Amino acid sequence: MSLSSYNPSDRYRQRSHGRIMAFVRALFFVVCAGVFGFWLGGVSGNQEFIALQAERDVLRKQRIQLQQDLTQIRAESQTASLRLEQLQRTYKEVLPEGPVRELMGLVKQQLEEGMDPERLSLAIRSARPPRNCSAVETRRFVVSTPAYQGPDSKISVAENMITITGSGTSARNEKGQPESWYDPSKSIHLVFSLTDNKTQPVKGALPLHHSVVVGTREYRFTISEGAKSFAKVTFDSCDHP
Question: Is 0.90 topped by the overall pTM?
Answer without folding.
Answer: no
